[in-house]
């Protein structure tokens, strides 16, 4: 449907005559186009193949929600400006991407192949020029050495909601540019120690909602963000993160299986800023649990099974600003735990949802809240209650005076 939209005739003296045909394309029916024909929307049209005569200046092509089974060499021929193709929610066959299908699309950066129900492996002939690959809600079980072998430009991969249970040790051998890996909601129980190591630029690894029982060894030292939310990690041995010297955020949220943290588990994480241990099964904190975390300013330690804290619990996290201790089994708290001579930046602490024993040992805290409640500020003191002694059971701290905190 390409048409000659304008013809410019340049006459240069008597000798040279150049005819420049500026090809201007139409939007292929029944698609819709925006910004001229640079954005082409052909979604939800029951298409069984890629529309013919796509405009040659197309940059963004949306083919979602169709019934396309195959893309062949001529489908994207001449589409040199194409940057982004969305083929999610189609019925691409495993062999549906024919060799060279994207060869003309040298500018292609983003390819979305999510929700194609036949994809139980990565299809061959993926375009090597893509930097962003979406492969969400397919049925891939095994990421093999071949899966990504030609995708050397990948910066971002999203494999969320597949059934990945195996990542071969050389699966990422050619992903030296990869910065973000999302393998959320898969079936991982174990990752080969060297599987991710070749991804030497990896900044974000998202393993949320898998079945990992151990922290994988030999993760890339480039990592900034590591997320193990909702796995089944049981134990953090000493120095398990020791190579991750650039890590800034570590999330172990929703891990009731995680009961023991060896002293020195976090050694080496000198740049860590945020540590999330919410809803873990941790029942014991020592003065060396957080050794190595001198940069952490936000520590989530909510909803664990911790019932007491030693005076030096946070002596190693000297930069701590915000501390969540709500929803634990704490009955009492020594003033030294929150001492601003040890924690000069501590500004906010959350202590609600603990079964406090409201006696003389907590009188200092009641006075702190009532007198000034700064450095640190105890957040939401209005919902703090007493569990003991029996005479004060269920009472809100706000309804008491410090004189009620007696032994
Ligand atoms: C990788 O590229 C080579 C050379 O073009 C090709 O023979 C091979 O089939 C490709 N592998 C995959 C998995 O696409
Ligand atoms: C992965 O892709 C899905 C679907 O496009 C998206 O909803 C999700 O936010 C992506 N995840 C990340 C972490 O980028
Ligand atoms: C993945 O895990 C789900 C839920 O645990 C299970 O139903 C499914 O069979 C698993 N798939 C594979 C391929 O292991
Ligand atoms: C740290 O890196 C060394 C050298 O690559 C490796 O042998 C060791 O297993 C790594 N440690 C962890 C805990 O990953
Ligand atoms: C502590 O925080 C301050 C202010 O954000 C920062 O300049 C300093 O580098 C941090 N210290 C460590 C050990 O990370
Ligand atoms: C309340 O706290 C602020 C900030 O720490 C301090 O400057 C002020 O002196 C305190 N006031 C009292 C009455 O303790």
TrEMBL record:
SUPFAM superfamilies linked to this entry: L domain-like
Entry keyword set: Leucine-rich repeat, Repeat, Signal
All copies of domain LRRNT, residue ranges: 26-60
Signal sequence bounds: 1-25
Statement: the UniProt record of this protein carries the keyword Signal: yes
Chain ranges of the LRRCT domain: 354-407
Domain of life: Eukaryota
UniProt xrefs under Pfam families: LRR_1, LRR_8, LRRNT
GO cellular component term of the entry, any: membrane raft
Keyword Nucleotide-binding set for record: no
Name assigned to this protein: SLIT3 protein
């Amino acid at each position: 449907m390409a048409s000659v939209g304008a013809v410019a005739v340049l006459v240069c003296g008597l000798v040279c005559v150049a005819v420049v045909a500026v090809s201007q394309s139409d939007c292929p029916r029944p698609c819709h186009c925006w910004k001229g024909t640079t954005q082409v929307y052909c979604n939800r049209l029951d298409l069984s193949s890629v529309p013919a005569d796509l405009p040659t200046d197309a940059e963004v092509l949306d083919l979602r929600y169709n019934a396309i089974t195959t893309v062949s060499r001529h489908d994207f021929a001449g589409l040199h400006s194409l940057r982004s193709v969305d083929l999610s929610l189609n019925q691409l066959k495993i062999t549906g991407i024919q060799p060279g299908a994207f060869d003309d699309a040298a500018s292609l950066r983003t390819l979305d192949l999510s929700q194609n129900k036949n994809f139980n492996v990565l299809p061959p002939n993926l375009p090597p020029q893509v930097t962003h690959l979406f492969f969400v809600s397919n049925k891939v079980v095994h990421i093999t050495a071949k899966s990504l072998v030609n995708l050397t430009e990948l910066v971002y991969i999203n494999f969320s909601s597949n059934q990945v249970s195996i990542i071969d040790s050389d699966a990422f051998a050619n992903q030296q540019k990869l910065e973000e890996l999302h393998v959320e909601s898969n079936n991982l129980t174990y990752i080969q120690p060297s599987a991710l190591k070749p991804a030497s630029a990896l900044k974000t690894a998202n393993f949320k909602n898998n079945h990992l029982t151990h922290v994988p060894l030999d993760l890339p030292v480039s990592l900034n963000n590591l997320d193990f939310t909702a796995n089944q990690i049981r134990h953090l041995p000493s120095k398990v993160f020791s190579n991750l010297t650039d890590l800034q955020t570590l999330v172990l949220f929703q891990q009731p299986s995680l009961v023991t943290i060896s002293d020195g588990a976090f050694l080496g994480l000198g740049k860590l800023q945020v540590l999330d241990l919410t809803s873990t099964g941790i029942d014991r904190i020592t003065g060396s649990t957080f050794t190595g975390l001198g940069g952490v300013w936000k520590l989530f330690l909510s909803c664990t099974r911790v019932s007491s804290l030693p005076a030096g619990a946070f002596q190693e996290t000297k930069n701590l600003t915000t501390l969540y201790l709500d929803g634990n089994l704490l009955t009492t708290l020594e003033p030294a735990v929150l001492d601003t001579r040890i924690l000069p930046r501590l500004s906010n602490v959350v202590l609600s949802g603990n079964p406090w024993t409201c006696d003389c040992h907590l009188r200092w805290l009641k006075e702190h809240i009532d007198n000034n409640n700064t450095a640190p500020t105890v957040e939401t003191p209005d919902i703090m209650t007493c569990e003991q002694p029996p005479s004060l059971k269920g009472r809100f701290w706000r309804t008491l005076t410090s004189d009620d905190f007696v032994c």
